Amino acid sequence: MGSAGRPRMVSDRGARREAGDRPLAAANSSGMVEPSDSDSELTKTFTHSSSGTAPVEVTRDDLLEHALLGNGRPECFEDRYEISGTIGVGGMGEVYLGQDRMLRRDVALKVLRGGSAPNPRVLHRFLREAQLTAQLSHPNVVPFYALESTATKAPAFVMKRIDGVSLKQWIRDWRARWSTNEWVHDRDGLKARVEFFLKACDAISFAHDRGVIHRDLKPGNLMLGAFNVLYVMDWGIAKVVDDPEPEPAFEFVNDPDAIPVELPESRTMTGDLVGTPLYMAPEQANPQQSAEVGPASDQYALGLLLFQLLTGEAPRSGDNVVAVLHSAALGRREAWPTVGPAIEVPRELRAIVDRATAPLPGDRYESVVGLASDLRRWARGEEVHASPDRPWRAIWRRVERHPVAVLTGVLALVLALGSASFWALTGKLDAERMVAQQGVRIGLVAEQAHRMDRGLADAEQWLSTFGARVEEWLTHGEPAEPDWFPPSVLDGPDAPDDTGPHANYPGLVSFAHAVTILAPDADRGAAGSTLARLAEASLHFEALFSAQTGRGGDAATSSREEAPAWMRDGGLLRYAYCGFESGLYYAYPATSSAPEGYDPRERPWYAWGRENNRPRWGLPYFDAGGSDCLLPCVVALRDEEGRLVGVAGLDLSVQQAIESLEISGLEDVDAVLIVESDTGEVLLDSRHSDGVHSHGSLRFIEDMSDLQPVKSEVFLSELARGAPSGAVTDGDYSWVYSRLRSIDWALVARVEL
Whole-model pTM above 0.85? Predict the structure, then answer.
């Protein structure tokens, strides 16, 4: 930096490609950079197809860094750029306003911190950003002009100067205009907002086509320039898909500006988690799923951006970064507001946002192109894929688009029907009414199935987050005194104050502790070493239960010696636990029914979980007291070398699931069932008090020999088609179903006709 705090910029003629494709080379004795035919790697980096579809390539090249940081820069161009002010300060550098004296154009200059001796990894990431931005030539990506070096040898690059405001500021101003009735429809209306949001979708679609994932889409990184031109900015933490070179590590993990205690609206986190918590996709907020971050993650962030653009409200809230990250990992966002600008958002737009922000990547649009296409369908007044029209709406939409043709057809139909019999007309209307009713029933069942999927997806996210924390504790946690707490303590004088019977658990239970059991042949010393690093686990178990019941607040941080009241209400979650290769079993809450000498390594859930590095659902089984049927979800725990150290899991109550099977709005329901998607065998039945057709010595559903398929061959044939949802009539009943995505089950309603 210069003495006045502004960089004096110099141009490097040799650092520009001649004829559009000549590579950089080492500087000669006069300070000029000469091309080198032998530098094939750099040629590969800077020369690519002009077709517009070639993948972006980035590389780390010592020659490039030497050219930027080397001595002997040509002093005759040191005053080319005149600095007029500061735009802002980021994680890697500072951005200045300037003017190119030679070309007489305004520019923005981003200068790397650290002068002529920056951190090598920071320099690598800075150059990656320059290479990425330069290769993303799109009308809605900020234009890149040159890679330069200041007079003090600090690397910098020059970009188009955008005269405008960030989308963050625009939303703030728009909300103020709305509250003061100063709206201008052509500028502030729904279609106007969707129109410039589509420009962001187009830019991101282009980047995805080039193999680049932005990873930090937020209102602060979108700029609205003159003539309503939108630019996607700040590609500093972008990821190149299938990049053979390892991604450079981030250096800002301990920077208070990077991970603040109080969460600003749009600060970017770097380190193990990359992005801005308010706009992160679930897989982006979960360290165990970092390999899954891809185009669908950018789509999720765009969905949250669209939510904020439509409502004027932030998509997430939280007291601190941990709370917001927890919401992000669970795929949660704010509900649609019932007051303010959101009241005008139509059903179709809400459905588009809901689909783009689905917790599971597979439930989102296939690509950002699909998201943009649905938005354009809405803008044209057409049916959107995220919310198919009901029959009456499809008819009305056709009337709106083709009023003359439709009215002519209606008139012709009326004339034709004048000669038809009354009973034929009545039969046709009845058939049409039946079709419409079936459509409504399918929608209601599918909506309930989606809610169930959301619950199962939440459980998977909770388990994935907890598993990652356990792996971190075992590897880097500070050991404490092992807190041995065998089941027998609950029957003795040292039992916690909250110990007592509970309707949802056999024997005595305490929510103040986790129970610990050591396998008969286990080494107590090795198991104790594992237990010593799990001091925080019980508190996280409480938070897990808190999230499941939707309570949170003070309950999640209540005293360990106090039984939180919300845990006694009976949610779906029954147990959370870990089994370890050392023979240690650690489960919450503590129950006296847990058998002494229990060896987790010999249990079916452990065998299933050790083969799965992502949460997977097992097969239902009955708890030790036979009082409830439980559905387990398990995931493997591994050390930094990838070796198995244990399995983490949680159990949901099948009984509670049965009680929640009621489908709101669905009339004349005779029964609600959960069946195997492939076989149609009934697993749960709302008419049965126990929900399952067998118990006793049952431990896993695979041991059951008396499960029977649904007694309707017509329905079984329909189910075998493999459709995600549907309905079929058999005798006096209509069978309506929708498959679950998280597990190979289907929700079925049998409706009396």
Answer: no
